Amino acid sequence: MKYLCIFSLAVSILACDTTDQTTQSPEKITARKKYALVIHGGISDPLTMSQEKLEAHEEGLREALRIGKKILEENGTGIDAVEQVIRYLEDHPEFNAGKGASLTTERKHELDASIMDGKTLGIGAITGVTTVRHPISLARRVMDSSKHVFFWNTGAEEFADRQSDLERVENDFFTTEEKKAALEEKMQETALSCITCGPETARDSFYGTVGVAALDSYGNLAAGTSTGGGTGKQHGRIGDSPVIGAATYANNHSCAISCTGKGEEFIRHTVSVQVSSLIRYQGLSLQAAVDTVLQQRLKPGDGGIIGVDKWGNTYLGYNTNGMFCGAADSDGLFEVRVK
Ligand code: ASP
Known about the structure:
The chain has helices spanning 2-22, 51-73, 78-91, 135-145, 153-161, 177-189, 263-268, 271-282, 286-296; strands at residues 36-44, 111-117, 122-129, 150-152, 210-215, 221-227, 248-250, 255-261, 303-309, 314-318, 322-329, 334-337. It has a single domain, classed as 4-Layer Sandwich (Glutamine Phosphoribosylpyrophosphate, subunit 1, domain 1), CATH 3.60.20.30. The chain is built from nine helices and twelve strands. The site of aspartic acid has 13 residues, from β8.
């Protein structure tokens, strides 16, 4: 009897998973691609950014895609592709993560990152980190080597102290002249006493967070996001980038997602997990799920969502003037957008 029960439980679990797939819309019942990858480098504003700036971002995104594509083509894992591509973008001064991160009102960098493995639902997140060169690798280390999933500021730094191979830097290593100028401009626009409650300025829209989502040749999904937050953010402010279910989510039953934009809104609407749930429980396609959340939950101008589903379909959606983003897959797709 006991075995019969276990057997019927197993059958119903399997039936449940099969239902997941048989209720897919026909466009999704295709052979899974060997791999697929999407990346973003934050919101862009092609109307106000110089051609030179757009090109610098475009080249950075191209190289990031090449790095990820190579890993996945050679049967590397999705989680490695996510980490390595984000490490590259963290070192790229044009993007607002790692080197080139935004400055807080106190002229410091407080970095956030998260990563998720769609096979195991393993997660790692860190927030308010000040001396770790590659915050995404610290997040990965939390996922791989800690019984906890989320570390804050000094606790995250102490956890990093125990990882001998994670590179550490002075906080001003992350500073670029451009980000200093952006902070000065914002400070002049807004009375310092109220910099964190003042109206949104043009500068606020250049967020520049980075994120990656990937499907690997083993059928596993992964996603990650890394950021310095917005220019002139208040000390201690935590956005959506390190929050699993807000900016980052991956689940082999549905999709892998990374988001960029107004972090408070992405937390409020648990954006990345909502996209996953619409796919998994309502049978929506990736594109329909992303568009539903962008149009029915978020407001115009809030941001963008990139994703790859379990079949290797990719989608880059946003309700802003533009988004730095790109997609590649094993069928030959290789596309970068800066508008
Ligand atoms: N979402 C990030 C934050 O609010 C910013 C961004 O995506 O550019 O910290």
